[in-house]
Specification:
With 488 residues, this protein is of the alpha+beta class. Among the domains are: 40 residues; 247 residues, DD-peptidase/beta-lactamase superfamily (Beta-lactamase), CATH 3.40.710. Helices cover 40% and strands 18% of the residues. The chain contains 17 helices and 19 strands. The relative contact order is 0.12.
């Protein structure tokens, strides 16, 4: 009997254990389902905000072809109301895309044939939407007429675009002009260029064959990666300021050349700058001083700063953009520091990225998200959507931005960008002469903004194989700035 009672007791004790086990399984299943639903919601939000435009505008999406049969593709306008791209139809109903300014806007507008690029790609679906009166739409469809697509009004200024193209002249290179406090792209030019009108098979074959190595299809403003040269000293100076609170007491005796470890560094043009502090090193663009500064920096922290400034990161732009590269890290050899500190070595940057960094300094350390489209209107001129400026990232403190601005003002007042001195607007900037091969040839750089104390425009200029930034890039930037302030 005792045995039987014991067994019954054991059986009774096992019942709640099974219930607890079942409850745990239900709880775990509930958590898993909740996680899956949340993951689905997150991906759906990501798809709507990021991936949807890529899928909609994909060349593999057949929906665009169907819409082309029903809707007359919308036009693209400049900020000052000039038609930059339009679709016209002949009596037979055959449509053709036209570009009234020829090659002037080609790299930012992109092309319509042989694979869409630029705004023709990123705004493709928006120009194939028709937001006119629904009754009129139905009437047009019943009559076999195409409905007019929505029009795109860009942030691009025709005057500035022309000035930028003229500033580049016959040089290969790029110019980007940006509004620091909003992120509006006011001008973007890349040379060599090509005419998007009449891209027949023969012309296209010549462009793609590129036997002369001109890379006319390449948008150098967003896809060209160049050594930044002395424009990178902006970031080297900032890192030194962060690591050395007494940076204003820095001193170095420049004799024109010096050896750091086993690396010999020379100042541009064999200049000897004498005893310099950090500000004088910056305004004279003293290579040996900045190499000396570089040797004092923490490699890991330097890498963290450059990563925070969007190196090695895909920029959030509406069309193809190359990543700028900064490879130095805490595991790098000491001998890499001198060249890296002066913007040489393995560092590479796009003109667009350089413009964004400069615009952030001009805007008190805050980088605004660059944008090219101001608004979308229907065929009646009614606004369908409008871009609201948004913050991209905070790259530095306001105090740091003001200190860098002070140094960049000195570059214009008594340094390597003195040809900008004496204008009606006070500019701030940094020149660069970036060596790109063993022959000693250099690309000419200038980045800057104006007015220095209340910035309205930031510019980034590069002229390939031109020589000194102060001699060639600064006058090019001046043409753009002069045009901007002529009527502002």
């Amino acid at each position: 009997m005792k045995k039987n009672l014991s067994q019954k007791g054991e059986n009774k004790a096992s019942v709640p254990q099974k219930k607890n086990s079942g409850n745990r399984e239900i709880v775990v299943l509930t958590y898993l389902m909740t996680i899956l639903l949340l993951s689905l919601a997150v991906y759906f939000g990501y798809y709507l905000t990021v991936r949807s435009s890529l899928v909609i505008n994909s060349t593999y999406n057949k929906r665009s072809e169907l819409l082309e049969n029903k809707i007359l593709r919308g036009s693209i306008y400049s900020s000052d109301g000039e038609v930059l791209a339009r679709t016209v139809s002949d009596e037979m109903g055959t449509s053709k895309r036209e570009y009234p300014f020829g090659s002037l806007f080609v790299h930012v507008l992109g092309r319509y044939t042989h694979g869409k690029t630029g705004l023709e790609l990123s705004e493709n679906f928006n120009m194939l939407r028709s937001n006119i009166n629904p009754v009129v739409k139905i009437a047009n469809e019943l009559q076999g007429k195409k409905n007019p697509g929505d029009n795109i009004f860009t942030t691009l200024d025709t005057r500035l675009q022309k000035a930028a193209a003229e500033a580049l002249g016959s040089y290969r290179g790029a110019v980007v002009a940006m509004e620091p406090d909003t992120g509006k792209i006011l001008a973007m030019v890349s040379k060599p260029d090509y005419d998007p009108d009449g891209l027949d098979a023969e012309t296209w074959d010549l462009l793609t064959a590129d036997e002369q190595g001109e890379a006319r299809l390449l948008n150098r403003a967003t896809q060209g990666v160049y050594p930044p040269g002395s424009t990178f000293k902006i970031l080297t100076a900032l890192e030194y300021m962060r690591e050395h609170k007494n940076y204003k007491k820095y001193q170095y005796d420049c004799t024109g050349n010096d050896v750091f470890g086993e690396v010999k560094i020379k100042c541009y043009g064999d200049s000897s700058h004498g005893l310099v502090d950090l500000k004088t090193s910056f305004l004279k663009s003293c290579n040996t001083s900045f190499a000396n500064i570089g040797m004092t920096l923490d490699k890991g922290k330097f890498r963290e700063l450059c990563d925070s400034f969007l190196f090695n990161t895909e920029l959030l732009l509406p069309f193809s953009c190359s990543q700028s590269s900064f490879v130095l890290d805490k595991a790098s050899k000491e001998e890499e520091l001198p060249q890296t500190a002066i913007g040489q070595g393995k560092t590479g940057i796009t003109p667009m990225h350089n413009a964004m960094i400069t615009a952030a300094i001009a805007n008190g350390g805050i980088l605004m998200k660059p944008y090219f489209v101001d608004r979308r209107e229907n065929a009646y001129g009614e606004t369908i959507s409008k871009t609201v400026p948004s913050e991209y990232a905070t790259l530095m403190t306001k105090k740091e931005a003001l200190q860098l601005t002070d140094y960049m003002k000195a570059v214009v007042e008594s340094g390597t960008a003195s040809s900008l001195k004496g204008t009606d607007y006070q500019a701030a900037g940094k020149t660069g002469s970036a060596e790109f091969d063993s022959s000693g040839k250099t690309h000419a750089w200038f980045v800057g903004f104006a007015p220095a104390d209340n910035p309205e425009i930031a510019v980034s200029v590069i002229l390939e194989e031109a020589g000194s930034g102060g001699t060639y890039a600064v006058p090019a930037a001046k043409k753009v700035l002069d045009e901007y302030f002529k009527n502002n």
